[in-house]
Amino acid sequence: MKSAIITGATGFIGSTLVKLLIDNNIKVLALGRKPWTEVDQKRLQPNNLLTYCRIDMNEIEMLPERVAESGWIGEDCVFYNFAWGGKSKLSDLEIEHQINNIAWAGNALKVAKKIGCSRFVHVGTMEEAFTSKYLQLDYHKNTEYNRHVVYSVAKMGSRKLLKILAKEEGVDLMIGTNSHVMGPNDDKDSFLQVTLQKLIDGDELIFSTGEQIFDVISAYDCASAYKLIGERGKPHQEYWIGSGEARPLKEYVKIMAKLYPSSQELQFGKFQYNDISLTLEDFSIEKLTEDTGFVPSMSYEETVHQLHNWLTKGIYS
């Protein structure tokens, strides 16, 4: 890979991948909805290897013309599709807005072919693993609830559509699904980031039993895995991206509290967990490691330290 096109390049993981590719002397065409003047400079900074193109996914079919106008030329190019959007936030319950993403993902793959990208990496979501099991439940007997079901069903739809289109278009499709990603400059109120902030602020710490299996990967390692998938991933293969060390959720909380103690007691079991539970096998990265050589480089403890520096000092390390 000598160049890459990335949709959703201003997002948390997308921007981390942009930086990693540039650091490896790979030319990047970053796509985003915002004008360049409104892009968070902590995520994307001017660079000779970076070209930014403002384009919404609902007009992604216009990308070949935009590329021609900009004079950008991609050699040995991989297309990464990180873009996804709801009406108000990424995983909201707005059906029409979530479903639109399916068509846009399909259009992105066709555009990739036109531009000359023979490899296409689509980004799934961990919520698909929950929802695939959730949809098998007997709704007359089971009471589990998944609040991301509309978002993840749309993600599942885009996955199936892309598999069909990739064969029709002759594009090498790889799909990555990552565990929970943690790192600096994440603007989402994820559970562990909120927990760390509560430890810092001395707020009350109440949780479910925390017995459900979970997995965390650093933003840097996640981006590294996507880079390797683009370079070495096998055509039409699906990969799970994670730490390879999944464990009960409460273990992550306990480690975090040991690193940054609070005067507040950890109170597990104070409310009920009423969602699907995943297994250790669901989080396996064996196939990813086998095909690409991926090995995580950051421990969970290092990832927590990095996030703590960001939350308390604004340091991106």
Alpha-beta content class: alpha/beta
Q: Helix-strand pattern, N to C?
A: EHEEHEHEHHEEHEEEHEEHEHH
Quick one: CATH class of the domain at 3-178?
Alpha Beta
Distance between the termini: 26 Å
CATH 2nd-level architecture of the domain at 3-178: 3-Layer(aba) Sandwich
Major sheet attributes: 7 strands, parallel
Protein model, in words:
With 317 residues, the chain is of the alpha/beta class. It has a domain at 3-178: NAD(P)-binding Rossmann-like Domain (Rossmann fold), CATH 3.40.50. It is built from ten helices and 13 strands. The protein has helices at 12-23, 63-70, 95-115, 127-134, 149-169, 191-201, 219-232, 249-259, 286-292, 300-313; strands at residues 3-7, 27-32, 50-54, 77-81, 119-123, 172-178, 180-182, 205-206, 213-214, 216-218, 237-241, 247-248, 266-267. The strands form four sheets. It has a seven-stranded parallel β-sheet with strand order 3-2-1-4-5-6-11, with helices on both faces. Strands 7-10 form a two-stranded parallel ribbon. It is globular. The two termini are 26 Å apart. The model has no long low-confidence stretch (mean pLDDT 94).
Layout of secondary structure:
Layout: E1 3-7, H1 12-23, E2 27-32, E3 50-54, H2 63-70, E4 77-81, H3 95-115, E5 119-123, H4 127-134, H5 149-169, E6 172-178, E7 180-182, H6 191-201, E8 205-206, E9 213-214, E10 216-218, H7 219-232, E11 237-241, E12 247-248, H8 249-259, E13 266-267, H9 286-292, H10 300-313
Parallel strand pairs: 1-2, 1-4, 2-3, 4-5, 5-6, 6-11, 7-10, 8-13
Antiparallel strand pairs: 9-12
Concise summary:
This protein has 317 residues and is an alpha/beta fold. Helix content is 40%, strand content 16%.
